[in-house]
Design goal:
heterodimer, A: 116 residues, mainly beta, 6-stranded mixed sheet, 4-stranded antiparallel sheet, globular, B: 114 residues, 7-stranded mixed sheet, 11 strands, 52% strand
Chain lengths: 116, 114
């Protein structure tokens, strides 16, 4: 079945540091890939997405590139801020056959803490 | 526009009681999903609705769990004879319906079974 593996956390960085959170996946079809973020006390929010190989999703300074050859979708940000402290979830929805629905399979989440 | 709303935001119940959790999706979204978020299991898919039908119930953990959706809109997740292991945050999400569409999540219902 489908699965998503994220790097183990927690991750602790100083403000303005470079961030990478690794995500790899296993899927039987042609998945769309997503990063969701959960800020303290808030619900899950979509951060970015990519729907086909070599697509780059970006939002709020975060980027991730859909790499089919390495089955990866690593999240990066060049300079993190204290306000980026949150839990980050990598997820996929498989679309075998073209128009199937998007049940999400999530990674285990990575806690990011950014210190001033 | 309005996002996904869920009620109640918190529910504390005694073991053995039944509970109902409600989800109001984004207007016009045909797909609705229920997930469960717990410390030990992470985020788990429970059930998917397309319109009023549920083509995938594969994530429901036992026959104590059921869900329905009416009018292609509001959904209710019912847990009968609650157990302590049912304690979790229950999340609802909606989307236009295709796999390439992102899902938009509600704030969740935190269920505590004593």
């Amino acid at each position: 079945g489908d699965s998503v593996t994220q790097m183990e956390g927690p991750v602790t960085l100083s403000e303005e540091a470079f961030l990478t959170i690794n995500c790899t996946y296993t899927a039987t079809g042609y998945p769309s890939l997503f990063w969701y973020v959960q800020y303290p006390g808030e619900g899950l929010q979509l951060l970015l997405k990519a729907t086909k190989a070599d697509d780059k999703g970006s939002n709020k300074g975060f980027e991730a590139t859909y790499r089919k050859e390495t089955t990866s979708f690593h999240l990066e940000k060049g300079s993190v801020q204290v306000s980026d402290s949150a839990v980050y979830f990598c997820a996929l929805s498989d679309s075998s056959g073209g128009t199937s629905y998007g049940k999400l399979t999530f990674g285990q989440g990575t806690i990011l803490t950014v210190h001033p | 526009g309005a996002g996904v709303s869920q009620s109640p935001s918190n529910k504390v119940t005694e073991k053995g009681k039944d509970v109902e959790l409600r989800c109001d999706p984004i207007s016009g979204h045909t797909a609705l999903y229920w997930y469960r978020q717990s410390l030990g299991q992470g985020l788990e898919f429970l059930i998917y609705f397309q319109g009023n039908s549920a083509p995938d119930k594969s994530g429901l953990p036992s026959d104590r769990f059921s869900a329905e959706r009416t009018g292609g809109s509001v959904s209710t997740l019912t847990i009968q004879r609650t157990q302590q292991e049912d304690s979790a945050v229950y999340l609802c999400a909606s989307s236009p319906g295709l796999a390439i569409d992102p899902q938009y999540f509600g704030p969740g219902t935190r269920l505590t079974v004593l």
